[in-house]
Design brief:
By secondary structure, the protein is an alpha+beta fold. It is about 55% helix and about 20% strand. The chain contains 16 helices and 17 strands. Bound molecules: adenosine-5'-triphosphate and magnesium ion (MG).
């Protein structure tokens, strides 16, 4: 930069010096010329005046001495007095005098006198009028201003000063250039940074160039340090976030309901989640780094792990293990599968608790078995009686009537079973929404009394109804509450032998209404009591084999009452009778 600027600055300085030199010389010449001219004029007028007096007094000797003297004193190159062309009366150079004596008169003509400048000389021609005799001429010349003032010396002086100034300038320039060299390099480095240079090594400046260089290099070092710190910070951040990710992954794996074990090729557990620890009944620390053979005793699972480790199998194996006697402590499913990595042999064991699934499967299976049975029995009976009626060559009206009665009974049984199953299925699927009716239990029970009295009378059973004078109005699904009550009263009638008593009692107990149906019937054994609310369950009592029923009634009744927030419980003693109690919550405003 300094080099670039230095040359034009030097050229400008030289031009300025030259111009100013020329300008001063020019003006000095002009002023010297004018001064010389004024001097010549003054001298010529003074000589002319005195010369006129000396000529008038015919004192030529004094005139000639005066001319010589004055010429010398005033540094004149030429000084003479003439009275006509070639008639030189006096001259600074005495040998040039041509007229020794003055004539009486001489010419009076000629011009008014002149002053001319030629060849560095100022020449003056001044008329000297001598009264009564004629006009004499004083001619003199003197060197012009420059010559007089010794111009060469001045010019040399000026040139010397200019040269000295240039040298001084060069010296300063040289020093400044040295000083600015570091700044120039720093500037170049800045441009390099702007163009994308990031390597600090190539941006460094030689510190011998000037004090700016170390400062710049320090800045670069600090920048490097900042960048290093930033890289470290980013790395720490990345490590932290990846640790967080792992923590998140671990937490997610821990939240899984399935147990998870990862086993490496040395059969060591490298990862175990919380659920695995629960299923294998060990602490997580015990699982990690333990040998899988110490944790899992089952041979088939070990074999599946072996096959994956040896590479013989890439398929997953599913093994189900029952815990406790006949699976009383539940069932676990072990899924052994390879971890999808080409370079390492690793296996993963996923453990699931399928106890509930098993129970559901079993109850579904039982349900199907029961349904089949419940449907087949009446159907078989219907077919039997239909065939018998058709085969009868001469139909006996009494046989015919009995057959039709049987067919009717079995058809009704079928209808009831199918209806119950449908209700059950609807409740399970949530298809049936609860109606919000105002249910008046007293009205409902009065109707039941009307419905059941004939049956009771037929079996000589005493029906008693004990209702309080005021029963709160329920907000419930009337049909479902009715279904529950019918089931309880229907069962009591079915399972109470002739001559018994059935009592329906309603009590209001603060937040709930209790409807209890007690009978003096066959009663239910303790073992059966815990199952009578299961679907298709019928007591093992031999006496009920002659009583038709599918074992769905109580299951359905409890289900619908529970939907209302209530429940049905049983207390019974074999041969003594049973008490079924239905509880229903009372709406807050009605309580
Ligand atoms: P249905 O589906 O026709 O009602 P069910 O009466 O056999 O058939 P549930 O009403 O569910 O079925 O009753 C289940 C079982 O509980 C009955 O089979 C019976 O063994 C027993 N049980 C129910 N009520 C009584 C009762 N009042 N006295 C004695 N045993 C009863
Ligand atoms: Mg029943």
């Amino acid at each position: 930069m300094v080099a670039t600027l230095g040359a034009p600055v030097a050229a400008i300085l030289i031009v300025v010096c030259t111009v100013s030199w020329w300008w001063s010389l020019h003006h000095r010449d002009a002023s010297l010329d004018q001064a010389a001219e004024r001097h010549v004029n003054a001298v010529s007028l003074m000589i002319a005046e005195l010369a006129g007096q000396m000529i008038a007094s015919e004192d030529l000797t004094s005139l000639r001495r005066f001319v010589i003297e004055t010429s010398r004193q005033n540094n004149l190159t030429h000084c003479r007095v003439t009275i006509g062309p070639g008639q030189i009366v006096a001259d600074a150079e005495t040998s040039l005098i041509t007229t020794r004596e003055l004539p009486e008169t001489w010419s009076t003509g000629g011009d008014d006198g002149t002053v001319e400048r030629t060849n560095g000389q100022i020449a003056a021609r001044v008329p000297v009028d001598v009264a009564g005799r004629g006009r004499a001429w004083l001619e003199l010349s003197a060197p012009s201003g420059l010559a007089t003032a010794g111009g060469a010396t001045l010019e040399l002086g000026l040139a010397g000063v200019t040269l000295a100034a240039l040298c001084a300038m060069l010296l300063v320039y040289h020093r400044v250039r040295k000083r600015l060299s570091a700044i120039s390099h720093v500037r170049d480095a800045l441009f390099a940074v702007a163009n994308g240079e990031t390597d600090s090594g190539s941006l460094r400046v030689d510190e011998s160039l000037g004090p700016e260089a170390p400062a710049w290099n320090t800045l670069l070092t600090q920048r490097e340090e900042f960048r290093r710190q930033l890289t470290v910070q980013n790395a720490v951040q990345t490590v932290r976030s990846s640790t967080d990710d792992h923590a998140g992954l671990n937490a997610a794996c821990d939240a899984l309901p399935q147990g998870m074990l990862v086993i490496d090729e040395s059969r060591q557990v490298t990862y175990a989640n919380g659920a695995a620890a629960v299923y294998l009944q060990r602490s997580r620390d015990e699982l990690t780094h333990a040998l899988v053979d110490e944790l899992i005793e089952d041979e088939s699972i070990r074999k599946a792990i072996d096959q994956i480790m040896s590479g013989r199998s890439r398929q997953r194996s599913i093994i189900e293990l029952e815990r406790g006697e006949n699976g009383s402590d539940g069932v676990l499913r072990f899924i052994v599968r390879p971890v999808r990595r080409e370079d390492v042999a690793e296996a993963m064991v996923i453990i699931e608790d399928i106890t509930q699934q098993r129970i559901a499967e079993q109850s579904r299976h039982m349900f199907v078995t029961h349904v089949t049975h419940e449907l087949r029995t009446p159907l078989t009976n219907i077919l039997l009686y239909t065939d018998a009626a058709i085969d009868e060559a001469e139909p006996d009206p009494s046989v015919m009537s009995r057959s039709l009665n049987m067919i009717d009974g079995e058809a009704r049984r079928l209808e009831r079973v199918v209806g119950d199953m449908l209700s059950m299925a609807e409740i399970e699927a949530g298809a049936r929404q609860l109606q919000q009716d105002d249910v008046r239990l007293d009205v409902l029970i009065d109707q039941m009394e009307i419905d059941y009295t004939p049956q009771a009378q037929e079996k000589q059973i005493t029906l008693e109804f004990d209702l309080p004078p005021k029963i709160p109005v329920l907000c419930a699904d009337r049909d479902k509450v009715s279904l529950g009550l019918h089931n309880l009263l229907g069962n009591a009638l079915k399972y109470t032998p002739e001559g018994g008593t059935i009592r329906l009692e309603v009590t209001v107990d603060g937040q709930q209404i209790l409807v209890s149906v007690s009978d003096t019937g066959i009663g239910i054994s303790e073992e059966d009591q815990s199952h009578i609310f299961d679907r298709f369950y019928r007591a093992k009592d031999k006496r009920i084999t002659t009583i038709t029923g599918s074992g769905l009634g109580l299951a359905l009744a409890r289900e619908v009452i529970r939907l209302h927030g209530g429940d049905i419980t049983v207390e019974s003693e074999i041969d003594q009778g049973s008490v079924f109690t239905m509880s229903l919550p009372v709406p807050a405003e009605a309580a």
